[in-house]
């Protein structure tokens, strides 16, 4: 016993310098870092004043009271180990611990009391485990928690009061779990929650009052199967600023739902099943600055008033929508602040100069469309070719006509290569018209000439020679006169039919 005490005293004496093999220790902080060195238990012989301990990428499968000596710890990283359970009261001494990282372990359930003592904890990372549920009040022992990361687990429901006591929680990450419904009743305790991530779950619809977290400013619902959002689903989110609905199955912009989100500034609606963007789809969103509608395989048209009232819109991305061939002329002109317009990789054939919001536009991307390089986009060629312009716009390639295909628009000469067809057409029309007129005039002249010739011939034969004696005076004389009159009015061909020989 005495011997043990001596050993302990000696160890305590050298503790400042003690650092297990493979670890890096810094006695100034003090901190220790033993990453990926194959440890399967927590070494207990570090400096007891340790404030930061990083044991990531080892083989630790159990805590086994290993932390009792380190009551000064502020940051503890145990991620990428083999922990299958945390036990209870393994953190009771860690009253100063602020960050606890347990990601990439093998945790499937947590027992009540697992986090007892963690009064100062602000960040808890439990992502990439196999958690199938969380018991109510489980996290009450960490009342200061502001960030809770539960992504990549197997959660599918959270009962009421799962988050009881978490009055300061600001960020909750539930991405990559198995939720079919929003755990609305559990979220009700999170009155300070600002950021909720539910990406890559199995949500199919959002029920009325799905979100009961009034402080929420950012909501990510990316990559679910949402095809319907009930009218009141987001109505409590009066402070919502960012909404991500990327990669869902919406068939139309949920305009009525969105119209209640008066503080919204960023909206991502890409990868949905829209066929059209209807008129005033974003009405009431007068604070919206960023809007993205990209990669919608069925989207073919946008109503000219689709963006009506989006007076703050600065960045608009409508890209990679293969069925968009044309954009309405007035679509962007009602957006007085628009400075970045990304229209890349649609199937636009032409873009009119008048459709651009020239007062504010600073960036324009029209790459990878199906632009027909003709006189109609001469303005764009001039713009892209200009050495000195405040507009940032990458060069675009022509998709047609065949002879300009693949060529960069800025390098074409507007008057020779873009408008050349038009000039040719005009010249062609003039040539054809002039030659037609000339031809007609010529034929008229010819006609007259031949007619005169004919008349002269008739004149020479008049009166007829002795071989054609005058018929008896009584009835044929008037006939001859009439025939002479007909001469004047008949065409050349009919003239030929006159039976001169009979005469
Ligand atoms: C996780 O636990 C399961 C059984 O619960 C076990 O089969 C698996 O090997 C464990 N994985 C690791 C990395 O320890
Ligand atoms: C998209 O909507 C159409 C009907 O508008 C439907 O037939 C199709 O299945 C939808 N696509 C997906 C992936 O659900
Ligand atoms: C240029 O091509 C576009 C797209 O095919 C067409 O709508 C437009 O009328 C053409 N302009 C001229 C001047 O030919
Ligand atoms: C380039 O632009 C600046 C202002 O943007 C202007 O002062 C300058 O004269 C321009 N130079 C040419 C060559 O156009």
Report on the structure:
This is LRRCT domain-containing protein. Keywords: Glycoprotein, Leucine-rich repeat, Membrane, Repeat, Signal, Transmembrane, Transmembrane helix. It comes from Scylla paramamosain. Residues 1-17 form the signal peptide. It holds the Pfam family LRR_8. 30% of the residues are buried. This protein is 20% helix and 11% strand. Residues 1-16 and 476-503 have low confidence and may be disordered. It has a 16-stranded mixed β-sheet with strand order 1-2-3-4-5-6-7-8-9-11-13-14-16-18-19-20, with no helix packed on it. It has a two-stranded parallel sheet with strand order 10-12. With 503 residues, it is of the alpha/beta class. It is built from eight helices and 20 strands. It has helices at residues 2-14, 184-187, 255-258, 378-385, 414-418, 420-461, 473-489, 492-497; strands at residues 24-26, 31-33, 52-54, 75-77, 99-101, 123-125, 147-149, 171-173, 195-197, 205-206, 218-220, 228-229, 242-244, 266-268, 276-277, 290-292, 301-302, 315-317, 340-342, 363-365. Among the domains are: 21-202, Ribonuclease Inhibitor (Leucine-rich repeat, LRR (right-handed beta-alpha superhelix)); 462-503, no CATH class. The radius of gyration is 43 Å and the shape is elongated. The structure holds 2-acetamido-2-deoxy-beta-D-glucopyranose (NAG) (4 copies). The site of one 2-acetamido-2-deoxy-beta-D-glucopyranose has 3 residues, from loops.
